[in-house]
């Protein structure tokens, strides 16, 4: 018994040290409960709007900011990077009420098909979502009938948001590259 007791005390001391050092109590962070942020009950919202990507004409809403040297020989435009500030409207017509902007970047990221890496914010300017944003980061295979991209976050009323966006091309001009895309966004938020 005399030999076991010091070993037991040593083992207890090591376990106590591991438990205490494993807690996340650093000088720059701490663990909080959800109740401390006074979050309400989660809900799901469905948003429906149209995205107007205008790359031609006198007032483009999307402009090419970079391209790889091989872009000229690529059938998919691989390496093209485009910055956008596209209007979001209630209906597909350009004269429809603007409810927000799609602001971000899309880049041609596939050598075998037209597929964009989309990184953008839907910044809403209308109704109860005025000032709130949803962040999208995903793959958009442009010529698929419906494309699904994840909602990875948000701000304002969409703080802690998660969900998905379904994009469906409503209209596309093959000559200019202009497009109107219908979005159905399903988002869980507080």
Please explain how this structure is put together:
It is built from one helix and nine strands. It has 190 residues and is mainly β. It holds the Pfam family Dirigent.
Structural class call reads: mainly beta
Number of helical runs? 1
Q: Are there runs of 5+ residues with pLDDT below 50, and where?
A: none
Q: Average pLDDT value? A: 90
Main sheet attributes: strand count, strand direction, barrel closure: 8 strands, antiparallel, barrel
- Please bin the fraction of helical residues: 10-25%
User: What is the element string, with H for helices and E for strands?
Assistant: HEEEEEEEEE
Q: Quote the distance from N terminus to C terminus.
A: 58 Å
| Widest β-sheet, arrangement of strands | 1-3-4-5-6-7-8-9
Instruction: Please tell me how large the radius of gyration is.
Output: 24 Å
The overall strand count is 9
Classify the oligomer.
single chain
Shape: elongated
Approximate strand percentage: over 45%
Pfam family, one: Dirigent
Subunit structure: Homodimer.
Family: Belongs to the plant dirigent protein family.
InterPro entries: Allene_oxi_cyc_Dirigent, Dirigent
């Amino acid at each position: 018994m005399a030999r076991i007791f010091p070993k037991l005390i040593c083992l207890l001391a090591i376990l106590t040290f591991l438990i205490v050092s494993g807690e996340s109590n650093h000088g720059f962070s701490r663990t909080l409960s959800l109740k401390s942020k006074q979050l309400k009950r989660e809900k799901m919202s469905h948003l429906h709007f149209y995205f107007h990507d205008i790359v031609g004409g006198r007032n483009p809403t999307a402009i090419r900011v970079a391209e790889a040297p091989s872009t000229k020989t690529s059938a998919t435009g691989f390496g093209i990077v485009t910055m956008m500030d596209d209007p979001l409207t209630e209906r597909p017509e350009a004269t429809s009420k603007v409810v927000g902007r799609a602001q971000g970047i899309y880049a041609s990221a596939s050598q075998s098909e037209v597929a964009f890496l989309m990184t953008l914010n839907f910044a809403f300017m209308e109704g109860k979502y005025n000032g709130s944003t949803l962040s999208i980061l995903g793959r958009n295979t442009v010529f698929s009938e419906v494309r699904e991209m994840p909602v990875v976050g948000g701000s304002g009323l969409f703080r802690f948001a998660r969900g998905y966006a379904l994009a469906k091309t409503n209209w596309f001009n093959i000559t200019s590259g202009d497009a109107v895309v219908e979005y159905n966004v399903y988002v869980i938020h507080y």
